[in-house]
Amino acid sequence: MKFFRITFLVLALFCMPLFSLVFTPIPLQGILKSIYAPALFGVYSKDFGRLYCQLYGVATPSKNFQSDICEINPKTLKAMRHFAMNYTQNKIFSEQIYFLSYQNGWCFLQNGGNLFNEQIIKDGYGVVQYFDLTQEEVITKLETLESVAKNKRKGLWKEWAKEMECIKSTLREIAKEKQK
C-alpha cells in the first residue's frame, strides 16, 4: 500500500505540468479590475480568481526601461508612457467583461471582435515583443500592423519614432539573448 501511494505521488508530480498544458484557461471571461500599465492588467474570473494579463506580443514604454543599445531621456519616456496609458484607459474599461486566453503565460484580451493585442500595435502605442514566438502567425500580423502604424506615424510613432525604434531594438536584443 505504501509503495502504491509513493508511486501515485511521483506520477502526479510528473503529470501536473502536462495537465497545465492541456487544460489552460482558454478562453475564459473575466472582469477587468486594474490597469497597471498600457499592456498589463488585473482581471477577475469567477473560475480562477485574480489573474494578471500581460499582452502577448506587445511591449509599451516602461518606466524601468534601460538599454545598452540606445538612450531615451527619462522625461520623454515618462511622457510616452503617459500617452500610452491614456490610450489604454480610453480603450479598455474597468468592471467590464473581457474574453481572455493565455499562451505560455501571456494573454490575449478581447472585447467582441476587438483583440486589444492587435489594436494597441495598430494604433501606434506599442511595439512587437519577441519573448515568446510560439504563435508565429500572431507575431507576423503584429509586425504588419506595427509597420503600418510606423509608416503612417500613428500614436507614439508620430512624435517619438526614434524612441519607439529604441524600445523595439532593445527588446529584440534581449529576446535574442534569452533564446541562446
Name the descriptors.
47% helix, 180 residues, 6 helices, two-stranded antiparallel ribbon, globular, disordered N terminus, 23% strand, alpha+beta, six-stranded antiparallel β-sheet
Describe the protein.
Residues 1-25 have low confidence and may be disordered. α3 (116-122) runs parallel beside α4 (136-151). The termini are far apart. The chain has a six-stranded antiparallel beta sheet with strand order 3-2-1-5-6-7. Strands 4-8 form a two-stranded antiparallel ribbon. A hairpin with a 2-residue loop joins β6 (106-111) and β7 (114-115). The protein has helices at residues 2-22, 74-91, 116-122, 136-151, 156-159, 161-179; strands spanning 28-37, 40-45, 49-54, 58-59, 97-103, 106-111, 114-115, 127-128. It is an alpha+beta fold. The chain contains six helices and eight strands, in the order αββββαβββαβααα.
Kindly report the spatial arrangement of strands forming the biggest sheet.
Answer: 3-2-1-5-6-7
What's the SSE pattern? HEEEEHEEEHEHHH
Report the helical percentage: 40-55%
Distinct helical segment count: 6
Strand content: 15-25%
Structural class based on helices, strands and sheet pairing? alpha+beta
Average per-residue pLDDT, rounded, comes to 85
Low-pLDDT regions: 1-25
Give me the count of strands. Answer: 8
- Rg, Å, rounded: 19 Å
Largest sheet: 6 strands, antiparallel
First-last Cα distance: 46 Å
Note the overall shape.
globular
Quick description:
Helices cover 47% and strands 23% of the residues.
What's the topology here?
Elements: H1 2-22, E1 28-37, E2 40-45, E3 49-54, E4 58-59, H2 74-91, E5 97-103, E6 106-111, E7 114-115, H3 116-122, E8 127-128, H4 136-151, H5 156-159, H6 161-179
Antiparallel strand pairs: 1-2, 1-5, 2-3, 4-8, 5-6, 6-7
